Amino acid sequence: MGWRILRAAKAAQRMRLICLTSCTPVMGFVDNAVFRMQYTGDASDGELALPMIREIQPDLLITDIKMPFMDGLTLIKLVRSELPRTKIVIISGYDDFTYAQQAIRMGVDQYLLKPIIKDKLVEILVELYGKMNEERQQQEYIEYFRREAQEYENFSRRSFFEKIVTGVLNESEIIETARSMDMDIEAPFYNIVLFSLSSAEYDGSAPEIYTENLASLQDDVTKLFIGRPELILFRWNITIYAVLVRGSEDDIVTNTIECIKNIRDRCLAAGNDVGWYIARGTPVPRLSALPSCFAEASRILSYRYLCPDEHILTEASIQDLRENSRFRAGTCSNEIDTEHVRKFLSGGTENEIEDFLEQVLENTGERVVSTALLCRYLAMTIYFAALKYLEMIGCSIDSLWSIDLWPSDSIATAGDLRNYAREVIRRAIDLRDRESTRRQHVLLKQAIDYIDKNFSDPSISLDKVAKNVNISPSYLSAVFSQEVGQTLTEYITSRRINEAKNMLRNTDMRLSEIAFAVGYKDPHYFSFVFRKVSGCTPSDYRRGTGSEH
């Protein structure tokens, strides 16, 4: 009995075929009649052929029901479990009917009766080739559709991560939600890496402007996580990304370090006009412990305002910086560095205020903040640093900066100072965010107007829209998802499909013409997207027989 194994190059769109049969004429039939299939090897029995099948992963398997060493039913069961996409054709005689019934229940795609007739075999192979080619094309469309719509700033993904690290979801809810989002999140150990990417001059008061260097870096960094199941990327806020690192007890640290190294290498290559910082937590053995892991990473990352030259922040490096700073000064400083306050106000969030104040006041020392006079002096320093920053970014503060926030004699202790500084910084961040939101709305409207006028351009993309309105692609994507409730790509797709529906109902244009008119070069892909979005084909929609979502 001869076992023939065939394989074809993907570039030629040929199908990989394995034939396990004692009917040697089958080989010649295929070679002569179905030029898109080729044999690539042979084996004398099933046990020898199985490793080759696993290695080649054929598109089509033709096998006898009865074979020595391993019968066809055993083989079919193994192939179905390991290679579910492989098509299977069985060859049987009339006396093998019971076995053939079992094979059909296992999901074989076709059967041939002995003796094999050439025309029948060719008919089946051509039919299966067409079926496999259609399935492959559909899979390619699905992958392309996913890539096209894969903006890591997707609002639902960002919301999911926020619920994880704030403890809103328990472990079973996290797993269930992740599965509904087609996300594999389970692992023995977890860690969180936070990293910040922005232009070096970004001050937080306005949408981040478009620069080729930053856009390229953001694209390069996010590509790091494609095809890396142990690293799951999320958006945390406008400038900060989060990576959920997964792994075993033995490799979680290695995975974390490799993740940081890959981000660092790309940031270093980007040059000095990009601001970047990285921090990580301590690995934890369960999903329910991620809030504490995130809190640790977030606290460490907040030191970027005090240590602007230290791009990879760790507990150890922060301790070294503290010791070095105190050694150089000989003692704790009586001053608060107003530049540190300005940097925090430019990019800090309300959630980071406590950590920032802890760092600032720790640097001044217990002896200093225990003196009432110096507490008032430090309060005044923070107050005027905030005023200067708000004036610098053009905020109108007269009507909002009330007299109750002026430094007063009531500030006498470290606790008073902390409470006062917290409120001053909180209000300054609120004013900064209002100014930023006002400018966001203007630019967001410009972006939507641009899309509405240019959605039929096949080359339109997040990067192209961002460049046109002079906003960082990452910034635009995050704001767009948050304000509009869908990603920018989803919005473009929606505009295209709505326009296509209008043309289908109100014109006699062919489907290919409509596809091109709304921005799709490939009519088949247009039909795929239309059905994905609308729940029916373009033809069914035109006839009024489609059932829309």
> What is the overall number of helices?
22
Q: Structural class, please?
A: alpha/beta
Q: Kindly report the average pLDDT value.
A: 81
Annotated CATH architecture of the largest domain:
2-Layer Sandwich
What is Rg? 32 Å
Q: Show unreliable segments.
A: 1-13, 327-332
| Share in β-strands | 5-15%
Gross morphology is: elongated
Question: Number of DSSP strands?
Answer: 12
Count of the domains: 4
CATH class descriptor name of the largest domain: Alpha Beta
Rounded to the nearest angstrom, the distance between the terminal CA atoms is 54 Å
CATH homologous superfamily annotation of the largest domain:
Reverse transcriptase/Diguanylate cyclase domain
Helix content, binned percent = 55-70%
Largest sheet: 7 strands, mixed
CATH topology title of the largest domain: Alpha-Beta Plaits
Task: Name some characteristics of this structure.
Alpha-Beta Plaits; seven-stranded mixed sheet; five-stranded mixed sheet; alpha/beta; 549 residues; 22 helices; elongated
